[in-house]
Amino acid sequence: MSDCDALRPVIGLTTYLQQAQTGVWDVRASFLPAIYFEGIGLAGGISVLLPPQPVDDAIADRVLDGLDGLIITGGRDVDPAAYGSERHPATDEPVADSRTRDAFELALLQAALRRGVPVLGICRGAQVLNVALGGTLHQHLPDVVGHTRHQQGNAVFSTSTITTVSGTRVAEMVGPDTEAQCYHHQAIDRLGDGLIVSASDSDGVIEAVEVDRESHPGRWVVAVQWHPEERLDDLRLFAGLVGAAAAHASQKAQKVSV
To answer: What is the spatial distance between Cα 90 and Cα 115, in angstroms, rounded to a whole number?
Structure first.
């Protein structure tokens, strides 16, 4: 291992857990589209995939012992029971595997927040972060905004113009606005404790949140409703996480050496 590789931060990425087909096999599987970890690699990080599994605080801490940063990735809708709501007919019906993933990611997030591990939430990840901090979700955006442009279906991403809030980490990374790839029929409703809105779209839909750094100095926790992994020609969000994770790794190393 070169000195350069040794300094690259390790980023954990959560994964799907559901039935999947490959060749002649049709099995329950943990998986993640490669573009997620390709983005981390291009930004200078090392990726580790985290399969959903039964978890408690001790297990979450043990997982995070080996990580410098965490990404909560996209996927199925969060179980509305996690934020005290009844399921909308358009919301994915919770099953055992999706509940396992919900619990796993919520526990990892709580541990990361407690330990100061940098976090990037992507699409579902933004929703999980909001729920973890006591917020709620709009379960079906067409009921709120009157159209389906945020999720056109058939795996076709729509492009939305996102306007950021000046002074936020998201604005510092992507500028006053950006063209984002979106595929979501849910979004943040009531904001979770300690979060601030850092971007929205022309419909007023919250498209990015982050932990208020005035209230939580030293915490790097950002979540976007869009899919930055779909635009690997723009690595600014991945680079922001990798940079924060490298700083966190350096701080951990200094504590160990003292």
So the answer is: 36
Coil/strand/helix, residue 258: coil
* Beta carbons within 8 Å of 163's beta carbon, 6+ residues apart: 176, 177, 199, 200, 201, 202
Which residue ranges make up each domain of the chain? 3-257
Taking Cα atoms as reference points, which of 229, 249, 251, 252 lies closest to residue 239?
229
Q: Please, what CATH class does the domain formed by 3-257 belong to?
A: alpha beta
d(CA 183, CA 150): 6
Of the listed ranges 37-51, 99-113, 151-165, the least confidently predicted one is 151-165
User: Model pTM?
Assistant: 0.93
Which residues are catalytic, by number?
123, 227, 229
Alpha helices in the chain (DSSP H): 3-6, 34-42, 57-65, 96-115, 124-132, 141-145, 169-174, 236-257
